């Protein structure tokens, strides 16, 4: 895949970039090692001040960055601005709380281990490689970069090849904010070079957000090298609706949860599991609202859904829908690729799904909803848990006991009750099963790339 900005609204190539040669990659690795050594010795308060300065830069660049995100991957401009704002908020949150998150933890009764004092302390690992996707080209990176740099690590970014402008912006951001040269650098390289980087002794750990096959490859290479890895992979999140909830609110939230980022989000709700007593009313409202969405130019403030980011992504999505309809699925709205330029796909809802359809077990990365009718909460959980993924989930119920039951029974890294799945700096983010392991953000996220060192003192 070429390293290039290709506008998904038109399919036209905007700009291409040359991949770095081996000498440039070596130079950047060496700079990262030097920066990691400096960051390790830099007081946490200083690292936090640099991060706040970086947040100020991003905030000042908001309009330019939003347009860049929209041009590179088709995100509606209003959502692109929201992504930039989210990055700024997370950077400031991490900076404001890093000292408490990395504070030493004394053992309450050190004499129990024969010591006068005993405690644990967090120390950085060194240079961490981040392999990142295009769908949230700034946010996905920032939720790794902010805590990793604040913890005293240096970062190397292998970004998706279709968002090179985002990669190069991040390449200079942190040095502009005062971080030592080499603290965070982008590597414009093909994916084929990732395994070699992980094996390099200068790389201490790796994190990836991406597809399940890519995650398996990274985990295998990191495992052989005995290096820490964090995997945030695919998701096919359930959105469960039980009787007694406000269906207007639930259906409106369900639409937003499905088509956010043009439906290209790991934690977008993809499977809507609806109790039979309210199924017809919910589906009527949901499909009507899907049909009312404005599909068009993502630079237009009125647009709800823009194009998919890549031509291959639209083709893969269309194949899932075509497979389901060929096997008898009902198309309630959408379902056809229109004429004209760009990689647009209409908001679509499918029902009457059977286990032989690919969309039942595979991730639909675009604005396509799979709707299931269930008779009770046990069947709802069975359907929700039947995929290999387990990233996030949502359940709508008015009953506190039922809510608690779903929280226990759902196989997922998160459960959102009477709301939609979202990521934030305050909460740990990650999944189970084929959705990966490890966590980003929250207390757990900043600790992922630290050495937890126990200290015993006589």
TrEMBL record:
SUPFAM superfamilies: ALDH-like (SSF53720). GO terms for molecular function: aldehyde dehydrogenase [NAD(P)+] activity; succinate-semialdehyde dehydrogenase (NAD+) activity. Coiled coil: none annotated. Keywords: NADP, Oxidoreductase. The keyword Signal does not apply. Residues 3-455 form the Aldehyde dehydrogenase domain. Pfam families: Aldedh. Belongs to the aldehyde dehydrogenase family. This is Succinate-semialdehyde dehydrogenase / glutarate-semialdehyde dehydrogenase. It comes from Asanoa hainanensis.
């Amino acid at each position: 895949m070429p390293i290039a900005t290709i506008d998904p609204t038109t399919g036209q190539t905007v700009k291409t970039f040359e991949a770095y040669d081996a000498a440039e990659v070596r130079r950047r690795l060496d700079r990262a090692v030097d920066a990691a050594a400096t960051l390790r010795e830099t007081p946490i308060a200083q690292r936090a001040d640099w991060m706040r300065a970086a947040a100020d830069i991003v905030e000042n660049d908001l309009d330019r960055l939003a347009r860049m995100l929209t041009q590179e991957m088709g995100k509606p401009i209003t959502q692109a601005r929201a992504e930039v704002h989210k990055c700024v908020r997370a950077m400031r949150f991490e900076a404001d709380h890093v000292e408490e998150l990395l504070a030493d933890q004394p053992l309450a009764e050190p004499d129990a281990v024969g010591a006068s004092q005993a405690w644990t302390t967090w120390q950085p690992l060194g240079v961490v490689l981040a392999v990142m996707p295009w769908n949230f080209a700034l946010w996905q990176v920032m939720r790794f970069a902010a805590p990793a740099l604040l913890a005293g690590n240096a970062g190397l970014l292998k970004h998706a090849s279709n968002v090179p402008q985002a990669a190069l912006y991040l390449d200079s951001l942190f040095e502009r904010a005062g971080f030592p040269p080499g603290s965070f650098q982008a590597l414009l390289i093909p994916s084929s070079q990732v395994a070699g980087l992980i094996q390099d002794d200068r790389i201490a750990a790796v994190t990836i957000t991406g597809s399940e096959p890519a995650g398996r490859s990274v985990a295998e290479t990191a495992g052989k090298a005995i290096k820490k890895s964090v995997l945030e992979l695919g998701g096919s999140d359930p959105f469960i609706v039980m009787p007694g909830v406000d269906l207007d609110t639930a259906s409106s939230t369900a639409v937003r949860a499905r088509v956010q980022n043009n439906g290209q989000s790991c934690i977008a709700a993809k499977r809507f599991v609806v109790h039979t007593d309210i199924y017809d009313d919910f589906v009527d409202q949901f499909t009507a609202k899907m049909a009312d969405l404005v599909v068009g130019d993502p630079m237009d403030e009125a647009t709800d859904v823009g194009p998919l980011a890549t031509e291959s992504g639209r083709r893969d999505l269309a194949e899932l829908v075509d497979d389901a309809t060929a096997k008898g699925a009902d198309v309630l709205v959408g379902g056809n690729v229109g004429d004209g330029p760009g990689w647009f796909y209409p908001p679509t809802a499918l029902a009457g799904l059977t286990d032989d359809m690919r969309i039942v077990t595979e991730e639909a990365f675009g604005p396509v909803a799979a709707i299931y009718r269930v008779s009770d909460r046990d069947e709802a959980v069975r359907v929700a848990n039947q995929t290999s993924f387990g990233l996030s989930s949502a359940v709508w119920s008015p009953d506190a006991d039922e809510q608690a039951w779903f929280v226990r029974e759902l196989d997922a890294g998160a459960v959102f009750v009477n709301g939609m799945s979202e990521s934030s700096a305050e909460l740990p983010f990650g999944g189970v099963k084929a959705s990966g392991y490890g966590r980003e953000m929250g207390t757990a996220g900043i600790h992922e790339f630290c050495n937890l060192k126990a200290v015993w003192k006589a």
